[in-house]
What does this fold into?
Amino acid sequence: MPYLLDTEFGKMFPGKADQFLRKWEGNIVPKLQKMSTVKNPLVMPTDNESEDSCYRALQILITLLPPTASGRSKGWAKCSTKSALAYLLAIKPPGTSISSLLDNYQTMVESHQPHIVCLGAPSSTAQYIIVAENDKVSIPLEDNSLTCAIDKLFKMYWVCNVEYPVQLTSVFNFFENVYDILFSGGKRSKAVELISKLQALS
It folds into this structure.
């Protein structure tokens, strides 16, 4: 199933399927970390050097791209980076059964959209699964990389025509730019502004 996401996404956006894997860790993650540590040290949510660089970059990205106006108008108030991150990634202990991941009551947040579950710590070899509790769907991923898991999740949203979590609309708009596909946000969106700042970094 996961490889079908690559195939179908490639049909929708020819030549774009590997954009995220090529750009994220080699180009964007270092710039996000540089922006956080050099330009605004308060942005860094953690100083734990053992954490996975992709995981830290997600924390920084979510900190820099707070909820959109549409999210707030629907009753979603600002929350911590950890709470917002839960709409994208949940971390569970190694050995957690996949069937238990489909129980809504076990999740940190009420998530109606698919998200990633990491069995183990992102800094170690972990198993990643895309989970959609409402539809009772779980898709174990063969790759043990958080970057690859994000890539598959994003493609699933497009291939299955699923709306982004409103709490992370700006984050997913940012991902759209990484893939170099149609941008959902306006020209003055927070994601566009952040992209411009990252491009200005050497």
User: Anything to note?
Assistant: The chain has one domain: 2-200.
